[in-house]
């Protein structure tokens, strides 16, 4: 997958993408991330990227021209055929649709993504209307800009790409993948400060272990995020389990 990120602060992206799973994915050419400075697409002496809002009011608005030109250059360089191959152009904004594991899975299916990081008080509306094909928010709070949001989206998407995680199973079991939170995990020592690892996990009985984990995932979801269970596609045995947990 190729991901092109347009930002006014390219240096912010240096840290998060140079560690661990991500760096390995880049080294193995499973993903390529290109960071573009929107300021490089200005033509005036001062490299102006923002301007006053029509109608007045506090705060500056990002100008449309450099953003359009940057996206158009990126689009051209991808070699994708316009109207034939789909290229999502995503504006990160608190006004977008809410990001989730489901949205991450949807985005992971594309060959290319373009992410536009908004800044300051806003982005000229024509960017939303005539350039972005999608708008994403990572939560109902306002960040200083779209950069951290873009990193969140990229992180969640890249770990879903085939071959990025060691075993395909590790993304399958993640919290939210099944619509449930993840079950409790333990490693050695078997007893730490008097707290023992649950007996069943040491039993070697794989069927029992799978059953226990699944029950724990349901129980944990019920306790912490009950609203997720409504969307989790439970079968009748699982629904019974929920009912019995509710009675406890
Ligand atoms: N930019 C500012 N706040 C944001 C948010 N919550 N999600 C995405 N982009 C943003």
Describe the structure.
There is one protein chain. The chain has 248 residues and is an alpha/beta fold. The protein folds into 2 domains: 2-158, 3-Layer(aba) Sandwich (Alpha/beta knot); 175-246, Trp Operon Repressor, Chain A (Orthogonal Bundle), CATH 1.10.1270.20. The protein has helices at 20-27, 64-78, 101-107, 125-130, 147-158, 168-172, 206-224, 226-229, 236-247; strands at residues 2-7, 32-37, 50-52, 60-62, 89-98, 112-117, 122-123, 134-137, 191-192, 195-196. It has a 5-stranded parallel sheet. A hairpin with a 7-residue loop joins strand 3 (50-52) and strand 4 (60-62). Helix 7 (206-224) crosses helix 9. The longest helix has 19 residues, at 206-224. The mean pLDDT is 94. It binds adenine. Residues 92-94, 118, 137-139, 141-143, 145-146, 149 line the site of adenine.
Question: Which keywords apply here?
Answer:
35% helix; 2 domains; 248 residues; binds adenine; Trp Operon Repressor, Chain A; 10 strands; alpha/beta; three-stranded mixed β-sheet; five-stranded parallel β-sheet; Alpha/beta knot
List of distinct ligands in this structure: adenine
CATH homologous superfamily designation of the largest domain = SPOUT methyltransferase, trefoil knot domain
Looking at the overall shape, the CATH architecture of the largest domain is: 3-Layer(aba) Sandwich
Percentage of residues in DSSP E strands: 15-25%
Kindly state the mean pLDDT as a whole number?
Answer: 94
Structural class of the secondary elements? alpha/beta
Choose one word for the global shape.
elongated
């Amino acid at each position: 997958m190729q991901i092109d990120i347009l930002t006014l602060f390219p240096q912010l992206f240096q840290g998060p993408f140079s560690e661990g799973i991500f760096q390995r994915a880049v080294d193995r050419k499973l993903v390529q991330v290109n960071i573009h400075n929107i300021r490089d697409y200005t033509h005036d002496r001062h490299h102006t990227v923002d301007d006053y809002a029509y109608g007045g009011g506090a705060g500056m608005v990002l100008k449309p021209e450099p953003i359009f030109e940057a996206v158009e250059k990126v689009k051209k360089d991808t070699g994708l055929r316009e109207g034939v191959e789909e290229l999502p152009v995503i504006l990160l904004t608190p006004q977008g649709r809410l990001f989730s594991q489901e949205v991450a899975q949807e985005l992971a299916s594309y060959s290319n993504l373009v992410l536009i990081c908004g800044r300051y008080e806003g982005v000229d509306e024509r960017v939303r209307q005539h350039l972005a094909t999608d708008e994403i928010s990572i939560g109902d709070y306002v960040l200083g800009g779209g950069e951290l949001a873009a990193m969140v989206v990229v992180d969640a998407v890249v770990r879903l790409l085939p071959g990025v995680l060691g075993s395909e199973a590790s993304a399958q079991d993640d919290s939210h993948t099944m619509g449930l939170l993840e079950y409790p995990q333990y490693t050695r020592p078997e007893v730490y400060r008097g707290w023992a690892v649950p007996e069943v996990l040491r039993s070697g009985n794989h069927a029992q272990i799978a059953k226990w984990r699944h029950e724990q995932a349901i129980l944990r979801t019920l306790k912490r995020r009950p609203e997720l269970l409504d969307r989790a596609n439970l079968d009748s045995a699982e629904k019974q389990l929920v009912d019995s947990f509710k009675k406890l």
